[in-house]
Amino acid sequence: MTPVSPTRMIGGRYVVLGELGRGGMGVVWRAEDRVMGRHVAVKELHLPGGIGADERWLFRERLLREARTAGRLADPGIVTVYDVVTDEGVDHIVMELIEAPTLAEAVARGGPLDERAATALAQQLLGALRTAHDSGVVHRDVKPSNVMLGPGGRVRLTDFGIAQAADDPRLTTTGSLVGSPAYLSPERLEGSPAKPASDLWALGATLFFAVHGRAPFTGDTTAATISAVLHAEVPPIRTRGPLGAVIAGLLQRAPQARLNGMQAAALLASVGAPPTGPAGEAATTRVAPAAATPRRRWAWPALALVLGLAVGLAGGLLLARPRGPEISTLTYGDGGDVPVFDVTGEACLPGALAAGRSFPSGSRVNCDNPHDLEVFATFDPFGTQDELPYPGREPLAEYAAAACMLVFDSARIAGPDKERLEVTALVPSQASFETRGETSASFSGRSVICLLRAADGRQMTGSRIAERP
Questions:
Q1: 425 contacts 327 by C-beta, under 8 angstroms
Q2: How many Å apart are CA 23 and CA 15, to the nearest integer?
Q3: Going by DSSP bridges, is the β-strand pair 147-149/155-157 parallel, antiparallel, or unpaired?
Q4: For every residue of 264-304, which 3-state class applies, written as one string?
């Protein structure tokens, strides 16, 4: 290999200034682009031993194609690929130089991220992956060491195209893996091709690392780690609310039951407060989620949970229900426990919620006045357009529990008496579901409605819904 010196030139254009790091795929150099007059990162790629000339040519062709595709990915969360250079028979990827620690380095130095910082991290990585997946690019090696926490709060995902170029049966030796086993999805370890769903599993494992400081599945050997990914129980996730639900949903072993990128992003869209960052330097690398109106913000989690429910009803799997107080469920509509409930949106209501009692649209009262109930979320899992079979009270109750408790466990509900509140969910009766709310002017007859009430039965004064900053 060519000796390293400040005067080494790669491809007649890039002057090597020093080493930035090295790993299983090769060495990363800091270099100066003499044509553009800027500093860049140059990754020198090392293929496994025993690769013949034909295979190396194949790798080079794939690398060039994938790098070109990756270079067209326009997203602030993706490290830009500038060039591909072959120098003295060795291939190099020229990339944007990011002066920043990786997630792995930041956690090693400052410990796990707090929930708000990890949520901001997740939002940006989901955006980067969605851009890639929409362009037909699968990363294949999402892991903490490929996540960079850049200046100005920017989170960047690097190494697009490299793992994809190398992941070809003709280029891998027997028993070798492209990617880190602890962050490879079960289906990839079993030999299935990489798809967007496998990137999302890796993202779930990376987010688990971000909040726990370790991968969800590890072993003393590579074989033990692979076995854990394939068979071990998912460890408890210490964060609750939307982020915990996202991590649990991404770590579903069956790809068809796993959250997709849109679902995961929708769940996280409910988190509106800017992150404070964890202790240590990594706190300076966080970005607050984009602002949104309260109504729109809560429409997105509804969509995510709806899609999660559809997968669950088809495959027998539901999104993991966050830990929290038990909730009761009543049906509304013809033949239901509550014959009429025509109040949605954020609203406070007088009167105890009991079988046989109706709440028409004029039942609202000012939340500053004494009231017995508060509607804090409404979800519309099915809409009104399609003819659908009634899923049954029990599946609807399971969905309602997950949806309502997700919101209740978040910062959406506040107040010193939060622990003394109870949650009740209203789900449609069969008649209401099948008529699709044709007699209601306010909402779909298939909606799920989440209500708060005091556990001791006393009236409440003031809203328990936190004000948006």
A1: yes
A2: 21
A3: antiparallel
A4: HHHHHCCCCCCCCCCCCHHHHHCCCCCCCCHHHHHHHHHHH
Secondary structure (3-state) at 78: strand
pLDDT at 110: 93
Residue whose C-alpha is closest to residue 285's, from 52, 39, 102, 137 = 102
The pLDDT > 90 percentage for the chain reads 33
The residue type of 95 is M
Q: What is the C-alpha to C-alpha distance for residues 213 and 210, in angstroms, rounded to an integer?
A: 6
pLDDT in tens, 262-314: 888 877 875 543 333 333 333 322 222 333 333 333 333 444 444 444 444 33
User: What tokens does 328 get?
Assistant: 């009761």
| pLDDT tens digits, one per residue of 322-356 | 444 568 999 999 999 999 998 877 899 999 888 89
- 141 tagged catalytic: yes
Helix axes 261-268, 294-315, angle to 10 degrees: 140
In which residue are the tokens 């880190």 written? 180
Contact predicate 103/117, CB 8 Å: no
- Active-site position among 91, 141, 167, 342: 141
Residue 256, token pair as written in the block: 């068809």
For 229, the token pair is: 């990914």
Tell which residue, 30, 36, 41, 38, has the closest CA to residue 6.
30
**For residue range 201-236, what is the model confidence (pLDDT) as tens digits?**
999 999 999 999 999 999 999 899 999 999 988 888
Instruction: Measure CA 353 to chain center.
Output: 36
297 is written with which tokens? 């913000």
Q: How far is CA 163 from the centre of its chain?
A: 21
Torsion of CA 57, 163, 252, 260, to 10 degrees: -100
Check: CB of residue 239 under 8 Å from CB of residue 118: yes
